[in-house]
Amino acid sequence: MEFQAILKKKQQIIDEALDRYLPKEKALQNKVFDAMRYSVFAGGKRLRPILMMAACEFVNEEEEKILPFACGIEMIHTYSLIHDDLPAMDNDDYRRGKLTNHKVYGEGMAVLAGDGLLNYAYELMMQSILDHPHQCRNATAAMYEIAKAAGVYGMIGGQVVDLNSENTQVDSDTLDFIHNCKTGALFIAAIRAGAIFSGADPETLKSLTSYAENIGLGFQITDDILDIIGDEKKLGKKVGSDQENQKATYPSIHGLDYSVERVNRLFQQGLAAIEHYGEKAQFFTDMAHYLVKREY
Asked: Does the N terminus or the C terminus of the chain have fewer Cβ atoms within 10 A?
């Protein structure tokens, strides 16, 4: 099956699972359910849950078993986007071609929708662990990877430094910290969690981690590039917001040519980390090309 067809199939599996898992019953708190669903189903590519499922399958475990965790990481990712778009953060009006959550539901409800998704993600993962006690150790370790990546030593830590760096000159190490934590952490956690859940040996986990570290950073630098020269219609959001908010980015520090070159090196390093697995790693190879070939 062609890569795009595989990707579409996995996206459909995740979307159907998200629809099953997310609350939709009639209740007094209906509005927050609606707001949560609005952003979750606003057109995401589901890259993180797909990578988690792929890592699970790579280590010879049925990928459906990890669906609660895959959906959980997508909920966490979506919560971060809702909060990122708020006026107190990036102040964006559009996300994936649609009005951002706070533009539809108001700032207060958008905060609660993000909080709701974050908490519900852990409810979902914990329920899965309780329902399958024989998988408790690996599943709990997988959830720990996700929790750590989403917290103050991961995504939130990166967001903190990103906010503190506005209107200031930052060095290359600080910028790498922001990118590695703010975006890279969840990429790495997705792949590590899938591998750990499936009982990966240390060497396999090391290879997959190296792959994830490289594509995670490369993916974020590509975002920096697209914010300057991307097509708003294709991206589904306004370009130029990084410059408008005076955020530290690879192009602003290193220039556009170096940034493109850096992305290409990172993706080559990512491929090198898994090349010894041959055809078994074909999906990850195809995913790397898919990510690096996003249109500039």
From this structure: N
